[in-house]
Every structure is written in structure tokens, then in C-alpha cells.
Amino acid sequence: MPKSATDKQKPAPSSEPTHKEHFTETLISPTSPLSTHTTGNESFDLSISSSRNSIDQLYNNVYEMESSDQSPSRFSYFSYGQESRIDSELRYLASGGFAKADTDSKITVDEKEPAEARLSGEEKKDEVSKDTTRKNKKTRKPSPARSPSPGKIPKAGPKKKPVGSKLTVKKSEKNSNNEDPRYVGQYLLKQAREVVSAGGDPKKALDLAIRAKNSFESCQSEKPDLEFVMCLHMVAALYCILRQYDEAIPLVERSIEVTNINEGQKHLLAKFAGCMQLGDTYAMQGNIEKSILCYKAGLEIQKHVLGEYDARLGETCRYVAEAHVQAMQFDEAKKLCKMAIDIHRKNGTNNSLEEAADRRLMGLICDSMGNYDTAIEHYTLARMAMSANEHDSDVAAIDACIGDAYLSLARYDEAIFTYQKALNVFRFTKGENHSSVASVYVRLADLYNKIGRFRECETYCEHALRIYLKVKPNPQSPNDEIANGLIEVSAIYESMNQLDQALDLLKKSLKAYGTGPGQLTTVAGVEAQIGVLCYMMGSYFDSYEYFKSAILKFRAAGEKKSGVFGITLNQMGLACVQIESFDEAVDLFEEARSVLETEYGPHHPNTLGVYSNLAGTYDALGRWDDAIEILEYVVGMREDKLGTASADVDNEKQWLAELLKESGRDRRKGSRSLEFLLDG
């Protein structure tokens, strides 16, 4: 077989797979986020003014997106940390949201302060008995990270049972045999909330929440019950904490299904919260497309109730825009981010932290689309707002982004100066050994590598690795920052042809990522890159095994149509050729051809490369007619695109000439359709 069939340089698969296939509504879970029980008019017949109370209530509890290091959800540009609506939802539930006071039980149950402040006098009499103790009426709003009733949580000691222990719950259930199942459900849910608030075992909290759900189910009426809905939300959130996402999704879907938008604004808001929580859960699984569909459904509900220019709608616009960025859908992300900026401008909140977050995200979007000058403008505006609010760490993070844009524009001196500013601030505010400091070292190493100053490049790589490798990654709690940093340093070493060091760092990044469901596509990308390095080093069997593992993970994550998946199939086919597994190579090349034709088109260089590899494999198997048919098409396309003087064209023309000579045929003058050439 000619060397050009297998020895040609192929593009390496990215460690960050794209998500470009477009899901239709039918691909989302069977329960649509906008479904209702009614068959009549489904328009939201609600007054904006009448719904404001509940909207405020929701945003003070569900929508308050505070940072949570334990959340496996995606990055948010509002707080520049790991965030999730599910975290906020769970903290909201832990603080006693939607809990009703039982008049006869004399049990203290806190109500949500925003709701209490807005309820009318008559509603207060109906919802809360005079005997109910409300500590939050005289004190500040309880923090979601703390218990709403600190006095009721026993302090740690050898003589006291922990809150939510089986003995306590079973005794309560035994004493409450004659009580309404709803009361039992409320009590169990309260116990689960206290376990979460006290930082207890999430498995114990889940057991209590499931018992509460069963109690609510035993007394369900035809009319939707919001208390039951919030119980479902909490059970699902606890499943997510335990990374049991497949268990959580049906519960959130059910919570969306039982809420009826025609029952009033509270049900509408519960449906909104369910849509956002379902979107978060899909995002944790890596199903970004389904996640976006859920977010959009929630956004439409909120937009109808609040109107088009409410500041809180801007927050959701940015949140959904971030999801589009993850899916590499930059046009949609830009549109939503612009909406958020316009909303803040109309509300007179220029130079606010919210607008700064919008501007920073818009800068990232423009940067990703190649509009570097526009990106710098947005970054600069965001930096000014952060500086005015004395958020020094955020100013440094934005400086690093500005440096990236300067680097893309080849304005190296300005990039170095900006990186150094960010580095000095991070050192002062976060310490010498923080991952943020390491990330700037990596940027400087990349810059010096690009301008050929390799000694400085290696020095900065060593500084970064000293920080990244100081703490061993924990598989149970993967550190994405460390893993991403190791991948970036590995890429720099690979570009300097230090393949052993690059391979070692990629393997360490795999350990840092862990094996959670939400990491499948990322881990698959890393394994594919390891396969490429093994192939370059001549370890073809190792390369084959890594590619095989990566492809299995891509399939499990639903990545069956992306360009990265097609390129990985092509790379595995090349490994199969090297180990002389030609039949498997043909299957892989044919599947890669199908994927890349759909993703890139038949004329793309990556697609033509797969055609060439497939022709070479046909040649090795003795299927010369098939090889000639494909090569004639490839040579014709390369001549049209690259010209007859191209080295690639010349090599393939010589190869085609040899095959034609052996078969006693002449090259066809006219070109045939691709469907005909590749048929069979």
C-alpha cells in the first residue's frame, strides 16, 4: 500500500468535544416542560403584577445562584465558579421552603421570609397558626447553607443521636400512625432538610426524602400539590449529589408534569423551577442539547410572566447563553447575551456586577468567533465595572482573558504585560499555590512557545506543574481545574515534541477527571488524544485500546454525529491498519466518512483524508476497483481545491496511476457523483 494512505498527518481529536447536532423536540424526555393537564387554552392568563410576589419568592430561593464547589454542573460567568440551580434549589429546600405549619402539632416550621413579607394578613392567618414560632421574622433571612432552626439540631456529642437518625424517624412514625400521611411526609421532609443543612450524609437525607415522597403519594388528590412537587425536586437534587442522574431525571419530569400552569402563578413558577432543574441534570450527564431545550422552556415561561425587560430575565438569558457556549452554538449565545446586556441597560444598571458578567461572557463569545477586537472591548467594559466594585480577583481573571485576545492578535508585548498584571493580583489575593496562578503560568508558557523562546516556556510549564501536581486529585471529587491545566501543559510539551512528558500529563489528567457520567465526553476526548500520542510514538496496540475506549464513551454520551467523533473513528482506523486489522479498519473508515460528510461536507479536507484512508485499506484488501473509484474522486477534488502542483495531489495521482496500470485501465476524464463512487 502506498505510504500516503496511512502515513499522512491527520488532525488530532480535541480534548473538548463539540456538540453540534441539533436535537428536535421529540428527542427530549417524553414529558415536555411545557405540558399541562388541560386540553384547553394553554396561554398564561396571568397578571404580571399579581405574579410578582411569587416571582420574588422564587428568585430569593431557587434562582439565587451562589457558588458551590461540590456541584458537578457547568461554569457560570456570574460568580466565576462552579454553580448549579440544583444547588440553590437544594439549599432552598433545606431552609424550609414550601413547608406548612401544622396547627395541632406545635412543631416549629420556618417559612420563607420573602413569601412571608409579601403575604397579605388573611393569607398569613390561613397559612401559619398563631402558635407557630417564626424566628426569621425577628432575625435576618436564614442562610441557605445553615439550618432554619439551629436550636433544633443537636450538637455533636456521645450521648445525642444525630438529626434524622433511623431511631428518631421510626419513633416519630410509630407515634404518628394515626396522623395524616401528609403530616408524616412533612415531618420526614423536615428531617431530610435538617440533615442537608447540618452537612450530614446525603444518602441518609435521600432515604428520608424518599419516605416523605411515599407519604405524600399515599394521600395525593386530583388537584396538584406544590408540597409534593418540591419534595420531588429535593429527592432529585439529592440523587444528583450522589451522581445518580438517571434516577433524578424521571422525578423532575414528574414534578413538571403534575404542575398545571392554569392553577396559578405558583404552579407556573414550580414548572419554571422544574425546567431549569431538569436542564441542570441533563447538563451534568453531558446531554447539553437536551439541557438547552429545558432551559429555553423555562426562559419562555419566565419571559411571559415578567415581561421582556425585567432584570431577573437577564440573569436567565445569561445562564442559557452559557449553555449555548458549551455546545459551541455561538450565534445563539451571542443573541441571548445581547438580550441580557440590553435588559440591564434599560433597567439603569450600567456598570453593575450583573452587566460585568454579561460583558465578560460576550467577550468570550466574540473571542471564540474570532472577533478579537470586539472581545477586548467587552472585556475592558467588564473590567471597569469589576474594578469599580473592588472585585480584584475578577479583575485579574478578566485581564487573563484580555491577554488571550492579545495573543490571538499576535500582540505579544501587550499580552505579556496583561498576563503579568493578572499574575501579580492572583498571587496577592489567592496565594502563590492557587490554581488561578498556575493558569496564568500556562498562558505565559504558551505565549513564549509561540514566539520561539523555549527556555522561558519550559520554566513557566514547570511553575504550573509544581502547583497542579502538589495536591493529588481525588476520583470521588474530581478537580476540573487541575485536569484542564494538565491538558494545556501537555499540549505545549507535545508542540515541543516532548511526547513522553505530554503523555504522562494526559494520563494524570484522566485520574483528575474521575469517572462520573457528566465527564464521559471530556474523558473520551482525553483518551483519544492519548491514542494519538501513542500512535505518534509507534505504540499502535496501546493507541488502538485508547481509541476503542474513547469511542465507547462517545457513543454512551450520545456523541455519534460530532466532528470529533468522526475524527476519532478515523484515527482508530489508522491504528487498525498498523496492527493489520484491515476489516475493522474498513468499518471504522466508512463510519467516519458518514459522520464527516454530514458534519463537514464531502469537500472538507478531513473528509477527503478519510476517503484516502478508505481507498488505501481497500487497496490492502485487494479491492482495487473500489480503491480506484474513491481515489479518482479524491484526486479530482484535490486538483479543484488545491491545484495540480500540491504535494498531496501529486502523491495520490502517482498512487492512482499505479493502481490503474496494474488493472490495465485509464483514468476517467469526467467525474462521477459521490453517491455512485462510494456506493457499496
Automatic annotation (TrEMBL):
<protein>
    <submittedName>
        <fullName>Uncharacterized protein</fullName>
    </submittedName>
</protein>
<feature type="compositionally biased region" description="Polar residues">
    <location>
        <begin position="26"/>
        <end position="48"/>
    </location>
</feature>
<feature type="compositionally biased region" description="Basic and acidic residues">
    <location>
        <begin position="101"/>
        <end position="134"/>
    </location>
</feature>
<dbReference type="Pfam" id="PF13374">
    <property type="entry name" value="TPR_10"/>
</dbReference>
<dbReference type="Pfam" id="PF13424">
    <property type="entry name" value="TPR_12"/>
</dbReference>
<dbReference type="InterPro" id="IPR011990">
    <property type="entry name" value="TPR-like_helical_dom_sf"/>
</dbReference>
<dbReference type="Pfam" id="PF13181">
    <property type="entry name" value="TPR_8"/>
</dbReference>
<feature type="compositionally biased region" description="Basic and acidic residues">
    <location>
        <begin position="170"/>
        <end position="182"/>
    </location>
</feature>
<feature type="region of interest" description="Disordered">
    <location>
        <begin position="1"/>
        <end position="48"/>
    </location>
</feature>
<feature type="compositionally biased region" description="Basic and acidic residues">
    <location>
        <begin position="1"/>
        <end position="10"/>
    </location>
</feature>
<dbReference type="InterPro" id="IPR019734">
    <property type="entry name" value="TPR_rpt"/>
</dbReference>
<feature type="region of interest" description="Disordered">
    <location>
        <begin position="99"/>
        <end position="183"/>
    </location>
</feature>
